[in-house]
Amino acid sequence: MSPFTLGISDQDGFTTPDLGRRRRLLDKAAAAGLAHVCVGDHISFHGGTGFDGLVSASTLLSSHERLSVIVGVYLLGLRHPMTAARQLATLSQSAPGRLTLGVGVGGEDRREVANAGVDPRTRGRRLDESLMLVRRLLAGEEVTHDGEFFQLDRARILPSPEPRIPLVIGGKGEVAVRRAARFGDGWLGIFCSARRFAETRTRVLETAAGLDREPPDWFGVNVWCGLDRDAARARELLAARLEGLYRLPYDKFQHIAPAGTPERMAEFLVPFVESGAAHLTLIPVAESVEAGIEAVAEVRELLQKHCLNGQTILR
User: Which of 32, 176, 225, 254 is a good FRET partner for 189, with 20 to 30 A between their CA atoms?
Assistant: First the structure.
């Protein structure tokens, strides 16, 4: 089985304004062997909620000296690529090698896209142009560009991040496959089965080979989950969170967003690891942030034992 890292997504806990609590939570995650914290990004989601992904990443990176941060995913198409590249370069200076940028097209809330000044019908093309420019700018190139959405005249961002920041693509379907193969260092899945993950990873690698690119080598998945020793309570907690956020019944998510014990969650993740998911992030819904960290740490321990010697996860 392939090696993997396991991290946890920030859900209203790690970016608390209480600096002491924030550091205690991050220390707890690091002490439990978790590799990273994942943060999301929204400007104004379903009526106004949201959090800026790069600001959140900066907050967490400056609050802990070892944990890495994955932004999963950043709505790059709603920002100017020059500004985004400068922010990324600045973050890299303060926390070199500890940031991964996942990029997605967004669109679950079309009003969010439109209110950011972007025509929802063009957001895919706009993202592709932004990705191309950000990659070149972060490589230290001098860029002159006259495109559909952006015009740059001898633009440059220095110093270049060292080591470079992985740019991974989120999303589903053939468009995401082509985008990851053409512009990305890999692919980040969410709300997908292990079978779909394996198929998408294969398609990204095949498509990149056809473009005569170095094969992308970063593949990961984010998984919403309810975690509790009482499986019914885990389901109740997760259903309430997902239904409130996405305004859809939990039945729509239950096969790709499991609820139950840490053993159940570890069992769910094994096929992903076997399919090449090297970066796993759990988005836990539990009785508290602390309980979520403890449960995710238990999932990690169970998965490691399984990877090392095939030990059964179920007890």
Answer: 32
Q: CA 125 to CA 282: how far, in whole Å?
A: 30
Q: Are 307 and 273 in contact (CB under 8 A)?
A: yes
Kindly tell me if the per-residue pLDDT of 309 is higher than 80. no
What is the distance between the alpha carbons of residues 218 and 66, in angstroms, rounded to a whole number?
20
Stated length of the chain: 315
Q: Show the beta-strand stretches assigned E in 77-204.
A: 99-103, 143-146, 151-155, 167-170, 186-190
Q: How far apart, in whole angstroms, are the C-alpha atoms of residue 60 and residue 192?
A: 27
* Torsion sign (Cα): 265, 270, 272, 278: positive
Q: What is the 3-state secondary structure (H, E, C) of 106-117?
A: CCCCHHHHHHCC
Sort strands 42-45 and 49-51 into parallel, antiparallel or unpaired.
antiparallel
Q: Per residue in 266-275, pLDDT tens? A: 999 999 999 9
Query: Dihedral angle at the C-alpha atoms of 282, 276, 163, 75, nearest 10 degrees?
Result: -50
How many helices and strands, by DSSP H and E, does the chain display? 10, 13
Q: What is the pTM of this model?
A: 0.94
Residue among 168, 136, 128 nearest 152 (CA): 136
